[in-house]
Amino acid sequence: MPTPLSEDIFQECIEQAVQKVFQTMLQKTATPVPGASPVPATADWTWPADLSATVAIGSVGFAGDISGLVFLYLSEDLAHRIVSGMLGMTPAEVTEAGREVASDVIGELTNMTVGVFKNRIHDLGYPCKLTIPTVVWGDEISIRSPRGAVRRTYVFTVEGRSVVADLIFKED
Amino acid sequence: MHKLLTIDDSKTIRLILARAFKEYDCALIEAANGEEGLKAAAEHKPDLIILDITMPTMDGIQMLTQLRATGDQTPVIMLTAEGGASSVEKAQHLGVSDYIAKPFQNDALVAKVQKVLPLAKKA
User: Fold this and answer.
1) CA distances (Å), origin A43, targets A32, A73, A145
2) Chain B positions in Cβ-Cβ contact with residue A21 (cut-off 8 Å)
3) Do A21 and B103 make contact, defined as CB atoms within 8 angstroms?
4) Span B22-78, pLDDT tens digits
5) Is residue A65 part of a domain?
6) Which of residues 25-54 of B touch A (CB under 8 A)?
């Protein structure tokens, strides 16, 4: 019998996933921002100021008894720091490596994050599988939820920079 | 020299593994999906395969099923974000040596590889 998925469970699972991945792969602390995560996210919610310039958005889906998508939003600056940390590159090497390498790193970071989240949900009685990651970069990107979908947005800070985890899924 | 075949669609993971094993006396061969992995396994005869599950073209479970069907019993360590109970069960059924869930620490990965394939450090 599946465990009913409450707001607390979603929040705990996504927070644990983001914190575990940043700690294990980068030795960085991801701190949840209290009160910055409306449930569900509303149109008038104020986006973190440091994510108003160029952002990298990684997304990975999960499909099965529960289906949805998680988007991770990172500033370009934080994305470059993550590339540097995961691949052991200097800032100059990260710049030289270019966006293709950065996209692959952010895709893998998102894949790991959604994997930890999905595995918890799976083990609560909702078997599902991961999809292949995708990454886009841009200055003015907005994600619109499909009709009937529920959206939950969670904000973290990593070394003073914002990370947003945006969870969208359909509830039966 | 031992040969390790890493099969993962993420170049990031392949680069992390190359860094993790650079001080060991082994050669790393890379493949980006199960289909490439099968070809590389047949061509290079690796001593150990480090295998992801979720990949385009052919996933890790399909690749391992086909590999075992040829009689190839090369030790395999799964390294994957797909850690749900059913995936672990399928992989165990196909005779994997170990299962590492992403995210992972390099030291833990190297220790698990060392249990299957003792690697010497480069002189």
Assistant:
1) 21, 17, 11
2) 103
3) yes
4) 999 999 999 999 999 999 999 999 999 999 999 999 999 999 999 999 999 999 999
5) yes
6) 54
Task: Count how many domains chain A has.
Answer: 1
In a domain, residue A1? The reply is no
A72: CATH:
3.40.1550.10
DSSP A69-82: EEEEEEEHHHHHHH
Please give the CATH superfamily to which domain B2-114 belongs: Response regulator (3.40.50.2300)
* DSSP code for B121: B
- The vertex-A114 CA angle with A97 and A50, nearest 5°, equals 60
pLDDT digits 0-9 by tens, A17-56: 999 999 999 999 999 987 766 666 666 667 788 888 899 9
Distance from CA of B13 to the nearest CA of A (A): 8
Q: What is the pTM of this model?
A: 0.93
